[in-house]
TrEMBL record:
Segments traversing the membrane: 51-72, 84-105, 155-174, 180-202, 236-254, 274-294, 306-323, 329-352, 364-384, 396-414
UniProt membrane topology term: Multi-pass membrane protein
Localization of this protein: Cell membrane
Name of this protein: MFS transporter
Lineage: Bacteria, Pseudomonadati, Pseudomonadota, Alphaproteobacteria, Sphingomonadales
UniProt GO cellular component terms: plasma membrane
Length: 420
């Protein structure tokens, strides 16, 4: 068993890595809500431009299962550490390159094509990132602390969000709208290289996990992990996918969709909405921490079930809160939704690895998490925007409740023991 110093280093590596990855992912989501529509897509209806920007956001979600397959394959064959380093480099490189893209006015249709290609690269890298970070934490966890260790990489989500949106908030305060649209939005993408360097420095110092070491001691690793997973563990993969859908639906409605809706439909200035979201995201961090403690006292699956119940309630709270136009009510509904998000997201780091044996765990966890991202997150901003145009915010709330009930049904149907 690793010592206390080693455990701290391992948890720091999982936290820093996911913080970097989520920072990269969130600056794209924020930029898509604010500037990518007019910059990278043909002039026309602003709502149509926003819809196109949200569609480019979805590209990464379809890339993530491909990345899950590729990185899962090597993570289960050659180890967690080197695979995590590769995923970080790929996503960081894609993010940095976005900073130097030409706009539609400069390059025509080449601009959105390049944007979508780099967005695919971001998603491909993230496809292998989260699963590896979760395994790094959970496979090194002492007995009785899987929930708390598993929630540490989940904290990378609020940390990355605060770094990304905090930077956009500062830029909005010190720049004119014209300056921000012309070049200011590129700064967060350039600065990502600093965070990637920090993540690499931490990750190169860690060792392989004990669970993977045992796999090698017991015999050769699987030749085709995905084949073994789909042949022997497809039920766990399907249940894990559906059980994780709710967290993506809650998050992308409370962040990307809310930002775009409040700025473009309600006319609230960007800095006000970003500040409100930065305050609300702290409730998500609190929910993640509490979920990890609760998961060790009961089970991750038990916490996830109650989190899904809360997410259904959030679906009926978010729409009237956002539609009220009142900043206090908007903040309260966002804070509640993101607090609930902590309970449908925090336990995933301990729950999903427990569904699969160690020899195909990287592949199984990555596939389930990223397929859930497509169902619950990839199309959610697009669907929410379309539902808003058709029937208003109540339909958006119903959409969130439906996604949450889907996860709850999967969790109630599963009876899978935790694996070492």
């Amino acid at each position: 068993m690793a010592g206390a110093a080693s455990h701290r280093r391992i948890l720091l590596a999982s936290l820093v890595g996911t913080s970097v990855e989520f920072y990269d992912f969130y600056i794209y989501a924020t930029a898509a809500s604010l500037v990518f529509g007019p910059l990278f897509f043909p002039a026309g209806d602003p709502s149509a431009q926003l819809l196109a920007a949200y569609a480019s956001l979805a590209v990464a979600f379809f890339a993530r299962p491909v990345g899950a397959w590729a990185f899962g394959h090597y993570g289960d064959r050659i180890g967690r550490k080197s695979t995590l380093v590769a995923s970080l480099l790929l996503m960081g490189g894609s993010t940095l390159a976005i900073a130097f893209l030409p706009t539609y006015a400069q390059a025509g249709y080449l601009a959105p094509a390049l944007l979508c290609a780099l967005r695919f690269g971001q998603g491909f890298g993230l496809g292998g990132e989260w699963g590896g970070a979760a395994l790094l934490a959970v496979e090194n966890a002492p007995p009785g602390k899987r929930g708390r260790y598993g929630m540490v990489p989940q904290l990378g989500a609020p940390v990355g969000f605060i770094a990304a949106n905090g930077l956009f908030l500062v830029l909005g305060l010190v720049m004119t709208p014209a300056q921000f649209l012309a070049w200011g939005w590129r700064i967060p993408f350039v600065l990502s290289i600093v965070l990637v360097g920090l993540g690499l420095w931490v990750r190169l110092k860690i060792t392989e996990t004990p669970a993977f070491a045992r796999v090698l001691e017991e015999g050769p690793p699987p030749q085709v992990p995905m084949g073994e997973l789909l042949r022997d563990h497809w039920r766990a993969a399907l249940g894990g996918t559906l059980g994780a859908v709710a967290c993506f639906a809650v998050y992308y409605l409370a962040t990307a969709f809310t930002l775009g809706y409040a700025v473009t439909r309600l006319g609230i200035d960007r800095e006000t909405v970003l500040a409100m979201q930065l305050g609300a995201i702290l409730f998500m961090a609190a929910g993640i921490v509490l979920s990890g403690i609760w998961a060790d006292r009961s089970s991750p699956q038990h916490v996830l079930k109650w989190g899904c119940v809360g997410a259904v309630v959030a679906g009926f709270v978010l729409a009237p809160g956002l539609g009220s136009g009142s900043l206090p009510l908007m903040f309260a509904s966002l804070a509640f939704a993101l607090f609930v998000m902590g309970f449908v997201y925090g336990p995933l780091g301990a729950w999903l690895p427990g569904l699969f044996p160690a020899r195909v765990r990287y592949t199984g966890v990555s596939l389930a998490f990223n397929m859930a991202g497509i169902i619950g997150g990839g199309l959610t901003p697009v669907a929410a925007e379309a539902l808003t145009r058709r029937g208003g915010l109540p339909l958006v709330g119903g959409y969130l409740a439906t996604m949450s009930l889907l996860s709850l049904a999967a969790l109630l149907a599963m009876r899978k023991p935790m694996r070492a």
